[in-house]
Amino acid sequence: MAEREKSVIPYRVLEEFRYEIRRFLNFSERAARLAGVEPHQHQALLVIKAVPAGGKATVGFLAGRLLIQHHSAVELSNRLEGKELIRRSRSGTDRREVLLTLTADGEKLLHRLSELHHAELQTTGPRLLKALQVVSRAAPGAGAPPAEIPRTH
Description:
With 153 residues, the protein is mostly helical. The chain has a single domain (9-136), classed as Arc Repressor Mutant, subunit A (Orthogonal Bundle). 63% of the residues lie in helices and 7% in strands. The chain is built from six helices and two strands. It has helices at residues 2-6, 11-34, 39-49, 59-66, 70-82, 104-138; strands at residues 86-90, 98-102. It has a two-stranded antiparallel sheet with strand order 1-2. α3 packs across α6. It is elongated and about 55 Å long. 15% of the residues are buried. The model has no long low-confidence stretch (mean pLDDT 89).
């Protein structure tokens, strides 16, 4: 019987965890739209700003971080450039590489949105963390490494 209880999938705690994630994402999407950008555009600005030291904000890097196709990242960067939130330029070492940088307006917008997100995380963060802790403890075989999730990109 104890073995059977271990294999029970904790649907309620999984749902609670996903609910907390959805709450934060819903906040984030609304905040982006109120600031005049789409959620993917906000995420792209964050990716470009947060490139690790020594890295390059390229269209390919953007696609990888947002889990989208390269051509979708090109279109996304076109739209951000059209809103004058980013600047695109060719790499000096590899002309095929398109580098992305935030403009002053892009920096200001991202800063405003990041402040809002940080404030929101002050309240939602503890709930999200608690939900993560509960789901981690309730998972069948807790402590075992998670099953590999196939990547779609």
